[in-house]
Amino acid sequence: MLIVETVVRIRREHAGGKAIKAIARDLRLSRKVVRKAIRSPEAAFNYQRKVQPLPRIGPYQDRLDALLEENEGRGRRDRLRMTRIHDLLVREGFDGSYDAVRRYAARWRAARRKDAGEGAPAFIPMTFQPGEAYQFDWSHEDVEIAGKPMRVKVAHMRLCDSRAPYVRAYPREGQEMLFDAHARAFAFFGGVPRRGIYDNMKTAVTAVFTGKERVFNRRFLIMTDHYMVEPTACSPAAGWEKGQVEQQVQTIRGRFFQPRLRFASLAELNGWLEAECRRWAEHHAHPERGDITVAEALDMERPALQPILAPFDGFHESEHAVTGTCLISFDRNRYSVMSTAARRTVQVRSCHRSCNSPQKWALKIP
Question: What is the pLDDT of residues 317-329, one digit of tens each?
């Protein structure tokens, strides 16, 4: 492709009466290129390739299309990286480079968006004031506890202004674990923001209506009222509304949980995770204020946080029917209760083993 300066020189010399043959000889160009430069409007000399040759990918194009189509149908967690797709082609005899596969995949996705009438999505960055909000989410990670593989549920919280992270692992996503994660995260941050941003998880949201209208779980509302937090639920399938914690899930998975962690107990794992959150904040710059670290930004945001007035009694409450043999079914187990509760509906309050309640579960007869 000719640069603009060369095209302008060709047009100027030809306008001065110089022959095309002489211009081609002096500039070491073909006469065809010189004629095209002369005829082009306003020095616009752009070459558009009509057919893209694929010398390496050609024999494997159908196979690559099938792999890309299959990959698009997978969930985000299970999608293959381009390096893995290139490796699969190499195993089948492909001798081209990774860059060739990457470029082809980019053109393939652009063609799909064009066929569907979709342009590239546009997003408006969200800004937050100190102490304004935090974002919360769960992730599933594979670890090894006491020599046995285990998939733990990891609670993620992130302050929106300072970007300070907090993560803690639990055996499951029960509501009592949700309450415990909030209590420990607020203690770690040294205060409570004014607003919390969540997805529509069942431990927090009972019913989803049009727009932002939600019916929140009763115990979850009691927890947010205790900490003076205004809960905000994201739109369904709109992860960008809490993009900071979504990005944190991917970052923490790659930096903390890979390769697979091995600990003797969940308590040791959580102690290590909390120390890693502090270390990560001390050694990483704030993404928008590069002159300070995340830990320094947290110190600046901490005075704007609300104080923690008292610990929250984070039990999960549910109603159960007592059988005639004085048994209730709770958490996939059967428990015996006092005979006075036979054939009656009772309230069961369960608590995570690390909460502040003296009892781990209790029975209440209305």
Answer: 667 688 878 887 7
